[in-house]
Amino acid sequence: MLPNNDIVTNVYTGKDGVFEGLQSGSILLDSSTVDPSVPTALEKIANSKGSFFLDTPVSGGVIAAQSGELTFMVGGDKQIFEKAQGVLSGMGKKLVHCGGIGMGQAAKICNNMLLGISMAGVAEAMNLGIRLGLDGKQLMDIINNSTGRCWSSEIYNPVPGLMPNVPSARDYEGGFYSGLIAKDLGLAQGLATRTGSPIPMGALASQIYRLMCKAGLEVRDFSSVYKFIQDGQKI
Amino acid sequence: MLPNNDIVTNVYTGKDGVFEGLQSGSILLDSSTVDPSVPTALEKIANSKGSFFLDTPVSGGVIAAQSGELTFMVGGDKQIFEKAQGVLSGMGKKLVHCGGIGMGQAAKICNNMLLGISMAGVAEAMNLGIRLGLDGKQLMDIINNSTGRCWSSEIYNPVPGLMPNVPSARDYEGGFYSGLIAKDLGLAQGLATRTGSPIPMGALASQIYRLMCKAGLEVRDFSSVYKFIQDGQKI
Amino acid sequence: MLPNNDIVTNVYTGKDGVFEGLQSGSILLDSSTVDPSVPTALEKIANSKGSFFLDTPVSGGVIAAQSGELTFMVGGDKQIFEKAQGVLSGMGKKLVHCGGIGMGQAAKICNNMLLGISMAGVAEAMNLGIRLGLDGKQLMDIINNSTGRCWSSEIYNPVPGLMPNVPSARDYEGGFYSGLIAKDLGLAQGLATRTGSPIPMGALASQIYRLMCKAGLEVRDFSSVYKFIQDGQKI
Amino acid sequence: MLPNNDIVTNVYTGKDGVFEGLQSGSILLDSSTVDPSVPTALEKIANSKGSFFLDTPVSGGVIAAQSGELTFMVGGDKQIFEKAQGVLSGMGKKLVHCGGIGMGQAAKICNNMLLGISMAGVAEAMNLGIRLGLDGKQLMDIINNSTGRCWSSEIYNPVPGLMPNVPSARDYEGGFYSGLIAKDLGLAQGLATRTGSPIPMGALASQIYRLMCKAGLEVRDFSSVYKFIQDGQKI
User: Fold this and answer.
1) How close is the nearest chain B Cα to the Cα of D194, in Å?
2) Residue D17, number of CB atoms within 10 A of its CB
3) Handedness of CA A90, A92, A93, A96 (dihedral sign)
4) Which of A162, A152, A147, A123 is nearest to A61 (CA)?
5) Per-residue pLDDT at D39 exceeds 70
6) According to the model, what pLDDT value does residue D233 have?
7) Nearest CA in chain A to D199
8) Would you call B198 and C211 a contact, using CB atoms and an 8 Å cutoff?
9) Which of residues 64-93 of D touch C (CB under 8 A)?
10) Which of A190, A204, A211 sits opposite D204 (nearest CB)?
11) Within an 8 Å CB–CB cutoff, is residue B215 touching chain D?
12) Does the pLDDT at position D3 exceed 90?
């Protein structure tokens, strides 16, 4: 799981990279989140060496990884996917074959775009409610029993003091960095532009996390969007 | 449950309205979604006539109303709330006292702002994924098992053909009209401006539903945002 | 020229306010930027006292005020407007009768919404270009000779070092505060919601300036949006 | 002047393309608006054949082209630029050397992003004002004498009936298509993502023009954004 297109490509194709000395018949599994064109290119090289490549990005975050409950979204040859299931199920409780090479990335990027939108939405709704005089815990409880409920509200609430063991409980240390979701939303932008798909909310969320990176929150958990809209301040 | 500030106010204070001939000691429960200033004003009048007023907006939509599983968000005097619980529980499975008069509205408006954001986000993510070649049903399944999951994706998916008995299964007839969520988001804007609370995602969602009203989707379910971003066309 | 609805209303109707002891036949000219409902209410009171009221907001900023080159946008009775021209022309080079009472505000708020949009747009375009390696002065020159040219680029460029005697030349001290354009954009939101007018760009600009207020730029010139998108940092 | 990256590349490098049989010592001038990486790659090939390449995108639209008053933004070797000035000045009144190869594109894309923002802003402000009861011609006049003034308002106003000889006067036929500015804004997104530059207004404008393409306005002038926000309807 590496952070961007160039680094992933280089790990395989660079000097002393994975492709050097690769044993024929190997199955390469890469769980980075990158543009679908990256695994597409790497699969071609792997095939030319008698090996195989699957893109296997995940969802669930650090918490699900620790408990072996990740969702793997897999792109590539279906038979190879079936062979890889044993390994993947060691960390994942749900393995989904999403289609040909790169389609795991497509699914991951769509999910993360929605995640970025939801988290910003939860932050705005919670902040507005609290400023109007509502109790944060109660508002969270109402939302979680209503039509606004979502993973960002139920499992990973961005408001400090409402939940234990989430980044908002520790000043947004650790977790899934703003800089990383900004990168994923940048990938979504690229795919949306290529396919002419309107993503107004996704585009704005992308800009919000990018602004957060400028405001000193790049290596804080992305739920620090709550902090950002409250006061824009650097941590 | 009436559609806007003026209509609600008029039903109580207008000629032959509720306040004319109101018996002393009555408890008035109003489940409309309106600006918190409306119940605040009506409570004053009710009190001056020896009666009581609670704002009791709901979440859950037509489906939850039919099954008696609404969430009631209640603002007003706590003792009066306790007296009203018997009546409210006939239609609701969760009754929450949110604070003084108007605070039920505050909670409802925050929830609905998040709902409007989430639904637009689901529509964008599903449309992008399908255009990239993913199977809609599979993408929905992935999202519902990942960090993007939310009520709009799990219970009320906007993509036609994925779920039975939701508005997207019947060309967005019935349900919760775009015009109504546009109104709720307009209320959210007003409260955010009054309190100086940033709501970038909420503000954009507000504009998207308003544009949908202009595009002929005002009296279609708000999940028709999927149709809107696909082709902007009038139904 | 006072900063908001409540303060303006209070100056006229409050204790020891303008309306106390107002001489019959007076013409009241108010150049604050407020919701059109404020002058509408004040005109009624003025008329009831045998006097007159015009809303006369201005455009041009501190620079135009100092040189007597403001634009006055006037709402109210046309005959009264004609009587007031002598006074107004002392500070304004252009006096426009925009219609009945409140219509000066309508025009002002529309202009300022566009101003807020343009300034943010100039800041983004200049910042992007400079990051791509363009020379700031040259990019400004190109824009000012092309289709992107606007007042914010030609007269009031937000990039430090390109122009003398503008707020960007003095670390955004003075000028037209971010907090004030945020207020004007809030008024625009209210009017747009009331009339169901889509203003996606205006709504987003409103949120950007509101975020800037949270980030410590409330009492800096609104062209500090350039600073905000660069690094979000507090001054 | 060709419409996208692939077409431009193909015209030079494809079968029977420009590079086949190119005379050594030629200077190639390309006025398409494309990603800066395109002229960068083409310059390399040209140099390898003993020739030269400049990217020379323009601003001004059909009107300026007809009158020979275009602005040319030129990227590439400065000495080659000087040799090309004679040819370029036949169509342009302003020739600007913006830097190395691709920098003409950078300048053009920044300008056009601002243009797309301004035009949407003018459309919103004019529509809001007219709905509030202002006279369109008068509002345009006020804006053009105030801080909201910009090329989109002064030269190319999007409201039908206010100006002769502009696309809004002929139901948005001809001019600069929504589909083309959507493409330019897509290029801006790509550059902003690559450099981590926040462009919230540019990102939203990009989505608005993309939505317009879906709504049937792709081959109408981009000032039809006025029509789009009014009623979202297909022409």
Assistant:
1) 21
2) 13
3) negative
4) A152
5) yes
6) 53
7) A207
8) yes
9) 71, 73
10) A204
11) yes
12) no
Q: Which of C42, C22, C44 is nearest to C32 (CA)?
A: C42
The tokens describing A97, both together, are 């074959």
pLDDT tens per residue, range D131-186: 999 999 999 999 999 999 999 999 999 999 999 999 999 999 999 999 999 999 99
ipTM at complex level: 0.94
- Report which of D110, A224, D201, A213 is spatially closest to residue C231, judged by C-alpha positions: A213
Whole-angstrom CA distances from C64 to C19, C225, D8, D30, D144 are 30, 22, 48, 43, 15
Question: What are the tens digits of pLDDT across the range B189-201?
Answer: 999 999 999 999 9
Residue from the list D117, D138, D196 with its beta carbon closest to the beta carbon of C201: D117
Provide the 3-class DSSP secondary structure of residue C142: helix
Q: What is the pTM of this model?
A: 0.94
HEC-encoded secondary structure of B160-205: CCCCCCCHHHHCCCCCCEHHHHHHHHHHHHHHHHHHCCCCHHHHHH
Q: pLDDT tens digits, residue range A35-83?
A: 999 999 999 999 999 999 999 999 887 778 889 999 999 999 999 999 9
Q: C110-121: per-residue pLDDT in tens?
A: 999 999 999 999
The tokens for D48 are 């390898």
What distance in Å separates the CA atoms of residue B12 and residue A141, rounded to the nearest whole number? 31
| Digit-coded pLDDT (tens) for B102-122 | 999 999 999 999 999 999 999
Euclidean distance between CA atoms A197 and A110, whole angstroms:
12
Q: Say if the Cβ atoms of B59 and A142 lie within 8 Å.
A: yes
Rounded to whole angstroms, the Cα distance separating B61 from D199 reads 37
Which residues of A are less than 8 Å from D207 in CB distance? 198-200, 203
Q: Where in chain A is the domain with CATH 3.40.50.720?
A: 5-101
CB contact under 8 A, B210 and C198: yes
Provide the CATH number for the domain formed by D107-231 in this structure.
1.10.1040.10
Kindly report, as residue ranges, where domains of CATH 1.10.1040.10 are found in chain A: 107-231
Asked if D132 has any chain C CB less than 8 Å from its own CB, the reply is yes
Q: B5-101 in CATH: which number?
A: 3.40.50.720
* Direct distance between the N- and C-terminal alpha carbons of chain D, in angstroms, rounded to an integer: 27
Active-site residue (options: C93, C108, C183, C214)? C108
Q: Test D210 with A198 for CB contact under 8 angstroms.
A: yes
For residues C18-34, average pLDDT: 95
Banded pLDDT at C235 (limits 50, 70, 90): very low
- Position of tokens 């907006």? B57
pLDDT recorded at residue A232: 62
Question: Are the C-beta atoms of residues B181 and B191 closer than 8 Å to each other?
Answer: no
Give CA–CA dist B147/D232, Å, rounded: 33
Is pLDDT at D46 greater than 60 in this prediction?
A: yes
Chains within contact range of chain C (3+ C-beta pairs < 8 Å): A, B, D
Q: What is the pLDDT of residues C163-192, one digit of tens each?
A: 999 999 999 999 999 999 999 999 999 999
For chain C, the average pLDDT equals 94
Q: Which residue of A has its CA nearest to D200?
A: A207
User: C179 contacts in B (CB within 8 Å)?
Assistant: none
Strand A52-55 to A27-30 pairing: parallel
CA distances from B56 to B33, B72, B79, B108, C193 (A): 9, 6, 14, 9, 24
